[in-house]
Amino acid sequence: MSIESIIDDFAFLDEWEDRYRYVIELGRALPEMPDEERTEATKVRGCASQVWLVSEDAVKDGEAVLIFRGDSDAHIVRGLIAIVLALYSGTTPEEILKTDAEAVFARMGLREHLTAQRSNGLSAMLQRIRRDAESRLAQ
Fold first, then answer.
1. CA pair distance 31, 139, nearest whole angstrom
2. How far apart are CA 6 and CA 52, in angstroms?
3. Distance between CA atoms of 102 and 108, rounded to whole angstroms?
4. Which residues sit opposite 68 in a β-bridge?
5. How confident is the model over 53-83, as pLDDT tens digits?
6. Which of 26, 47, 71, 72 is positioned for an S-S bond with 77, CB 3.0–4.6 A?
7. Which of 36, 29, 34, 31 is nearest to 9 (CA)?
8. Can you tell me whether residue 40 is helix, strand or coil?
9. Hey, what CATH topology would domain 3-138 get?
10. Which pTM value belongs to this model?
11. Which residues are catalytic, by number?
């Protein structure tokens, strides 16, 4: 699912209760992460819930892109991961670094409806993705 589709769906839902349910549904649609990828190396620091994030190199339309997979032990966090993956997975490291995730989240009104812990965890995921993109550019 694209980030624009998610934003459109969010706009269609009037109540935050419905939006939370939608975020949880997005998380349920995430593919399961194999246990062997749930390691200390893939764990995202700064999240209250357990969060794992894996990035791998791929080629899309002749360009080097990063593909991300993620998982969490919390339903709402899995949904947040799905939103982050829709925003970043399959894009180039340069695109990742240029993308203003906060502007996207502001369009959705997402940050203002998250607890401080979940907001911090979301920031930690974004920082990890940016570090992965910076690392690929430095190679």
1. 29
2. 22
3. 10
4. 55
5. 999 999 999 999 999 999 999 999 999 999 9
6. 72
7. 29
8. coil
9. Sufe protein. Chain: A (3.90.1010)
10. 0.94
11. 47
